[in-house]
Amino acid sequence: MISGGVVLCGGKSTRMGTSKALLPFGPETMLQRVVRIVGDVVAPIVVVAAVDQILPDLPPAVIVTRDESDGRGPLEGLRAGLKALPVSVERAYVTSCDVPLLVADFVRQMLDLAGGYDIAVIEINGFSHPLSAVYSRATLPYVEDLLAHDRLRPAFLFDAVKTRRIDPAQMTADPDLRTLRNLNTREDYEQALAAAGF
């Protein structure tokens, strides 16, 4: 099964106070880092940005697309990302751009665990992580339908298709779940820089 990647970076970043996609993380920006790590596992990569968002330089093979509507959350980004993937790509690992401690082997393991399912998503204490998950192209009509009816929560999508809810204990590739550490505040950012040795 051909797998690609989708990186969503169109969020408002209100708590961070500046665009997360452009934040420096070592020698690159946070978006560049996440694109590089995901790109070590799958290709092609689609970056989904807000309508007028400024992006850092990205590799020429990266496909850049934009949300069709503003302020509609991750399902809007998922729609744009799945639509922009070449038709040969049957599924995608979907992530936000604010997870600079992302582990490449986590992506590989999620793709392995997604076999036979429309979606594979980690669930911790009843809370799902929709932006560290695998989605098949077959979910796109369901995403479109939910958006058309203003049902914007990813949980509605998980209930509509064949979803594998993964226990974190299964994630042997990233037992500390560093991949799930998304950064919302300056303190989060500074802690992640320290954890990465910058």
Task: Note down, in words, how this protein is organized.
The protein is globular and about 40 Å long. The longest helix is centred in the middle third of the chain and has 11 residues, at 74-84. The strands form two sheets. Strands 1, 4, 5, 6, 7, 8, 9 and 10 form an eight-stranded mixed beta sheet that branches. Strands 2-3 form a two-stranded antiparallel sheet. It has helices spanning 30-39, 74-84, 104-113, 140-148, 154-160, 186-195, and strands spanning 3-8, 24-25, 28-29, 45-49, 63-66, 91-96, 119-124, 127-128, 132-136, 163-166. Helix 2 (74-84) packs across helix 4. Strand 7 (119-124) and strand 8 form a beta hairpin. The protein is an alpha/beta fold and 198 residues long. It starts with a strand and ends with a helix.
